[in-house]
Input
Amino acid sequence: MSLAVVLLLLFAGVSEAAGRILPLVVRRPGMPRTLVASLLLAGGLVESAVFALWPLTAWNLAELVVSSPPPGDGLVWTPGVAAPLMLSAVLAFPWLGPVLHLLLFIGVGAGLAEPLATATGLGWWTAVGCVAVAGVGLGLAVEAVRRLVVNLSTAGSRESLA
Output
């Protein structure tokens, strides 16, 4: 991955994390800045890692679909494909609306499907399916981890009050 792609993915991840953390900061104005910064950094790194894994996961799913493994190193982010992802993360903070968020990520996923279809020899719709399953799977995994962290942190704060 080039430095430009890494920077785009990091910026998209931090932007996505900011969209999830800013409503929390607004509801709790007394939060320490160091806590907000650490949450933003940790969330941004996790979101960036998920974004980076999206093409790799789609490629692995495509390998399961085709009868013979496609030649090549796999699907990778390029600046032309990562830039719309970064733009969608900036424009579609989750609190601006899940529908807008979903539409923008569908557009980015369609952009990923074309290189996947070309590299693997799959049809475009099959490549779209692989990209969609990879995106949904990664999204569900991250959401499960988020909920687990929230439950653990809430349980810890309830115990300290008792």
User: Anything to note?
Assistant: The helical segments are 3-27, 33-65, 79-91, 98-120, 124-161. The first helix runs from residue 3 to 27. Residues 5 and 65 are 28 Å apart (CA to CA). The chain has a mean pLDDT of 78.
